[in-house]
Amino acid sequence: MNRLLCLVCLGVLIVVAIAIGIVVWTGATQPVEFLVQQDPPGRNDTLLWPAASSGSNNGLYLIIENALDDSWTPYLEQWVSRWDAGYGSVDPLALSIQRVAVDSECTPSEGRIKVCNGNYGQTDWRGINVALTNGQYMVNSVAMLNDYWLHEEDQKQYTMCHELGHGFGLAHTDEIYTNINTGECMDYTNRPGRNLDPGAFNFDLLQSIYGFAGRNGSVENVLNNNLRTIAPTNTQWTTEQSFQGETEYQDRFLRRRVSDGATIPASIREKYNQAIHQINSMTCTHCLIDLTDGYRMEVHRLLAF
């Protein structure tokens, strides 16, 4: 009888331990079950930042938060500068980098792209981008780079360029690794050194949506997180200009950003965190997750092969 009682007690303890493990892993007592089945987006299917609705046609202005460790910072600077520069007369992006605390968990900042790295373990992905949308517009975007897989120089360059592209709302050019390389970093490839360019198609697509940003990209401009620096080149800031004029420009810039994060319901934040904890259990390359009340998460996973 005592032995039977001990076995029953042991069984109860095991069940309780498993239940606690599930709660810790998912962040909730119930698993997240809101994956939406859909076809992968085509290369013209672009997520939109709120600037697309302004009608100003003056380009997409974004601040990119650098939450990387120091070893990754040069890669971010290089590829933000490259995306910022456009090509020829096509220049849809005006980008600025802001250094923030290193954050491997990559807590999102509203209205911004945040880029992070960490050893996320032997996952099936080397890079991942998660965009939160409300209605048809993006609220925030985070990009995570998995140090477990990223050791070779070409892979680091390719993955950084690729995940930033998702942050601007771009989809994959192609998801078949064995197809002929297009040269674009949004194209899946087994030879990343051959796909190290944002690509004219992607710049043209972004400019057709947001218009011309009107300034040439440079490392100096991109690294200086200053509203004067990221103003279009046809706006000449001088010490003689009134403070009111500068404030008006700041207001226009801030209106391009979404509402403060406090407007996101707590229930949506909780579901977002649950889904983030379950990313490694997803098998889709592109995952669409319905958080209800008009909020969705779009997850792009750059697979590790």
Note the main attributes of this structure.
single chain; 305 residues; alpha/beta; Collagenase (Catalytic Domain); 2 domains; 8-stranded mixed sheet; globular; Peptidase M10 metallopeptidase domain-containing protein
Q: Could you provide a short overview of the structure?
A:
The chain is α/β, with parallel strands linked by helices.
The number of helical runs is 7
Q: Any idea of the CATH class of the largest domain? A: Alpha Beta
What Rg, in angstroms, do the CA atoms define? 22 Å
CATH T-level fold name of the largest domain: Collagenase (Catalytic Domain)
| CATH homologous superfamily annotation of the largest domain | Collagenase (Catalytic Domain)
What is the total number of structural domains?
2
Number of strands: 8
Largest sheet: 8 strands, mixed
- Beta-strand proportion: 15-25%
Topology pattern, helix = H, strand = E: HEEHEEEEHHHHHEE
Q: Which sequence of strands runs across the widest sheet?
A: 1-7-8-5-6-4-2-3
Describe the secondary-structure layout.
Layout: H1 2-26, E1 35-36, E2 60-66, H2 73-85, E3 93-99, E4 113-118, E5 125-134, E6 137-146, H3 153-167, H4 200-210, H5 219-223, H6 243-255, H7 266-277, E7 286-292, E8 295-303
Parallel strand pairs: 2-3, 2-4, 4-6
Antiparallel strand pairs: 1-7, 5-6, 5-8, 7-8
Helix pairs in contact: 2-3
Protein name: Peptidase M10 metallopeptidase domain-containing protein
GO molecular function: metallopeptidase activity
InterPro entries: MetalloPept_cat_dom_sf (IPR024079)
